[in-house]
Design goal:
By secondary structure, the protein is an alpha/beta fold. It contains 15 helices and 13 strands. The strands form two sheets. It has a seven-stranded parallel β-sheet, sandwiched between helices. Strand 1, helix 2 and strand 2 form a beta-alpha-beta unit. The longest helix is centred in the middle third of the chain and has 19 residues. It is globular and about 65 Å long. It starts with a helix and ends with a helix. 42% of the residues are buried.
């Protein structure tokens, strides 16, 4: 085994017992989703031996954390290129580890740029079951092939044993393949999920610029400028910002301090539960949390100009908010790239907070959104993984 020389050093397992499941989650949202899935699995079988390449949520749920890549998580074409050497080293270290330890099931969690390439190499090296080996490959949370790179489904069919999707419409994206696909329900709809965000007309304004340093640098200053405009009419308005790690908190604090807003803006860990009146949020998982909580607001996003124009060419959809996509209409209006101006955002937030009909419409949308994201059995995601363990050769 050569992984110690090739890249990041993994913490060795604490026992020689065969590893039942290896989770691979390279982003904060994937770490959170995988942790909820693991909690269910552990509730059904405490003896499962689980390892993970992920974050603290997976560790707290009972996985032996081999390595935490989340501090270096990157997104976008340009950003990936800048971190190529790190990602390459992590890739080969992970591949070596799987070849040596032979977990019964590898459960990839989202993160397709890394995980789909890893699935291909496990197949080509004869490590995975479909490649002639003994390791079963399960994929939890589908790559967004309904938005772009739809051709990926054929490689997934070739390399994977199963796919668990969290949006029901995704099943149709694979109907021309023989890949077993199951809708296992969205984790935010399950009974044991407690949303960290609640709507309160008397609460603070929530600012969610993301969990990575590069997007934060492009989005957060605009959010703070918007907040200052809103305070011109609402001088008692306060803001709250949620952060995933101490490192990100330091970055956020620097921006808040630079704008002279340390008394008006609170920084809280994303493990806290907060009540808010409105939100400015980046796209992704957290925007869905806000929609399900019935919080009015807007989605903002700005990426590298080259990344944006490449996405305009390659991406099939023209909206980015998950709830907006699921319902095929805007729960939260979207302000992207040059549209992301403090004056426009302040006007939008003012209009929503002062219009009871818009608040009422969001409340109505929640019920439809929940219905679309609910599985027939609350334990379906755990049973889906258990079937892979039972089928292990």
């Amino acid at each position: 085994m050569t992984s110690q020389k090739q890249g990041p050093s993994f913490v060795p397992p604490e026992t020689d017992k065969p590893i039942d499941i290896l989770f691979i989650a390279g982003e904060h949202s994937g770490d959170e989703h995988a942790a909820r899935l693991l909690t269910k699995l552990k509730g059904r079988d405490q003896n499962l031996n689980v390892a993970a390449i992920g974050g603290n949520n997976l560790a707290e749920a009972g996985a032996h954390l081999l390595y935490n890549p989340l501090e270096n998580a990157v997104v976008g074409f340009i950003e990936v290129i800048k971190h190529f050497n790190y990602l390459k080293a992590l890739f080969h270290t992970t591949l070596d580890w799987i070849a040596f330890h032979q977990p019964k099931v590898v459960c990839f969690v989202d993160y397709p740029g890394f995980n789909l390439r890893l699935a291909k190499q496990l197949f080509e090296r004869g490590i995975s079951e479909k490649g002639g080996g003994k390791v079963r490959l399960a994929y939890y949370i589908s790559p967004q092939i309904w938005a772009w790179k739809s051709h990926r489904r054929f490689a997934m069919e070739k390399h994977l044993n199963t796919l668990g999707v969290i949006f029901p419409f995704e099943i149709d994206s694979y109907k021309d393949t023989n890949l077993p696909v199951e809708f296992v329900g969205h984790p935010f709809i399950e009974e044991d999920y407690e949303s960290p965000i609640q709507h309160d007309p008397n609460g603070r304004l929530l600012l969610l610029p993301g969990s990575r340093s590069t997007p934060i640098s492009r989005i957060f200053p605009v959010m703070l400028d918007t907040f200052k405009i809103l305070r011109q009419k609402r001088d008692d308005l306060r803001a709250v910002v949620m952060f995933p790690t101490p490192k990100i908190r330091e970055l956020l604090y620097d921006y808040v301090n630079e704008q002279g807003l340390t008394q008006e803006v609170d920084l809280v860990p994303n493990t806290e539960h907060i009540s808010v009146k409105g939100v400015l949020t980046s796209s992704g998982t957290i925007s869905l949390v806000c929609a399900l909580a019935g919080v009015p607001g807007a989605i903002v996003y700005r990426t590298h100009t080259l990344t944006y124009w490449m996405a305009k060419i390659l991406v099939k959809i023209r909206v980015i908010g998950i709830a907006n996509i699921v319902l095929n209409r805007f729960i939260h209006p979207e302000f992207l790239q040059s549209q992301m101006k403090p004056s426009a955002l302040a006007t939008e937030i003012e209009n929503q907070l002062d219009d009871p009909s818009r608040i009422a419409q969001i409340k109505t949308d929640i019920n439809e959104l929940r219905d679309k994201l609910t599985a027939t059995d609350p334990m379906k995601s755990a049973m889906w993984i258990e079937k892979q363990l039972e089928a292990h050769m």
